[in-house]
Design goal:
429 residues, alpha+beta, Adenine-n6-DNA-methyltransferase TaqI, Chain A, domain 2, four-stranded antiparallel β-sheet, 13 helices, 23 strands, 20% strand, elongated
């Protein structure tokens, strides 16, 4: 490492830079830090007053804690309190004087090479554990102390900006969900096509029910022992029914030809809508509606999944979009029954559901516009995923630049790191 370092920098192992204090902590109800208090992503921690564990240690302000248990998860924190009790599952690293405040933490916390080093030197399987010696047997680049302070200050500013960006991006899925729901609500209330009606006219909306415009059929109770791992005839179960489209690759099961022949009534055809009727009570994790877009008659409806087949007055995609609206879902779940864990909705939750039905021509226009807007939302989802990936990579990228001497300008008047290290070595001797 030393051959690649900027002028005035040096390299040293953590064991040369830090002590490992062994002061025992107080027992009793104290502000106590254990591994579970650490947020693995942000590297921040929260404290609660709780009984300390026998054998706990004392950590002081500016100490860095590295988890010895499951170390590759990255529970590495910088201590902000003057003093507190911490679990003995941490190794406490205390600066001997060659490191600026937070410098060691910034170098270690997101360092993939360091986490790999810890992981390669663990024992145990369920709770892999490493040692103090492994934790400190790692080399790091040391800038002059004044430059370290400039690096830390610059990183603090940049990482705060990265964190703010991440927080904004975290809000986007909720905003996109609201956008989709707003599109569906506007479409099914007629607001989305107000201009179309003004131009093309129309006969107005008809207040009706699902059973008046579509046929409802409940699923068949296929017996699990009849399921086979592969075949032509797939059984659509609750896990296959997702909003808007079937997920056929979710734990697929199949039935043999003879059972398929006996249960022809429960076939799904293109244009059919499948709806899940069972889930977790009060969580509304069901009632999803999926459109069957392709089927050669080899999809079959399992119990607790319903099929809706549209009549001539309603387009399948229009009804599919209606089933996604809050208006329908409120009606659907108003009839929820079941025990503490499992919620169920009966046939009435679908076929008695109210619907405001426009003429077919307007339904076609609504479908066209909704598909365009939902496609836009899907594109935004992809861009969001890309942006989140780029922001996630910013932190390690910034840290790599910082500890390669490329983040802040160097000052030739700064005391070289090697001279500082030599003074510390002499003081220890």
């Amino acid at each position: 490492m030393s051959d690649e370092l900027p002028k005035g920098w040096a390299a040293a192992r953590i064991s040369e830079l830090c002590d490992i204090p062994k002061e025992k902590g107080r027992e009793g109800v104290v502000s106590y830090l254990e591994i579970g208090n650490v947020d693995i992503v942000s590297k921040n921690y929260t404290l609660t007053d709780k009984p300390s564990v026998k054998g706990c240690r004392v950590a002081k302000k500016n100490d860095v804690l590295v988890s010895k248990v499951r170390p590759t998860r990255g529970a590495i924190v910088w201590i902000r309190e003057n003093e507190l009790e911490v679990s003995s599952a941490f190794t406490v690293l205390r600066n001997k004087g060659a490191l600026a405040e937070k410098c060691l933490w910034q170098f270690l916390a997101w360092n993939r090479a360091y986490l790999n080093h810890l992981g390669e030197n663990c024992t145990g399987t369920m709770y892999p554990t490493t040692s103090d010696e492994v934790i400190t047997d790692f080399e790091m680049p040391i800038a002059p102390l004044a430059e370290q302070r400039r690096i830390v200050a610059k990183l603090e500013k940049l990482l705060d900006q990265v964190d703010a960006c991440q927080q904004r991006l975290e809000k986007m899925p909720t905003l996109l969900k609201r956008f989709r729901q707003s599109v569906l609500a506007a479409a099914c209330s007629g607001r989305l096509t107000t201009d179309w009606r003004e131009k093309n006219g129309g006969d107005g909306y008809e207040s009706t029910t699902v059973e008046a415009v579509a046929e409802y059929v409940g699923g068949f109770a296929y017996k699990s022992p009849t399921f086979i791992e592969s075949g032509k005839h797939q059984v659509i179960r609750i896990g296959n029914v997702r909003p808007l489209a079937l997920k056929l690759d979710a734990s697929p099961v199949f039935i043999p030809d003879d059972i398929a022949e006996q249960t022809q009534r429960f076939k799904l055809l293109p244009g059919d809508i499948a709806i899940s009727m069972t889930g977790t009570k009060y969580k509304r994790d069901y009632g999803f509606a999926s459109l069957v877009t392709q089927s050669d008659g080899s999809l079959f409806l399992n119990q607790r999944v319903a099929r809706v087949r549209c009549g001539k007055a309603v387009l399948p995609k229009f009804l599919l979009f209606w089933f996604q609206t809050d208006l329908f879902r409120e009606f659907f779940f108003s009839g929820e029954t079941g025990n503490v864990n499992q919620g169920n909705v009966g046939a009435g939750g679908i076929h008695r559901a109210p619907i405001e039905l426009p003429p077919l021509a307007e339904q076609q226009e609504i479908v066209r516009r909704v598909e365009g807007l939902l496609a836009l939302a899907d594109q935004l989802d992809l861009r969001l995923a890309q942006a989140r990936g780029q922001v996630t990579n910013l932190t390690p990228s910034l840290l790599a630049r910082a500890f390669a001497g490329k983040l802040v300008p160097q000052n030739p008047t700064d005391e070289p790191a090697e001279e500082l290290l030599e003074r510390i070595r002499k003081a220890i001797c």
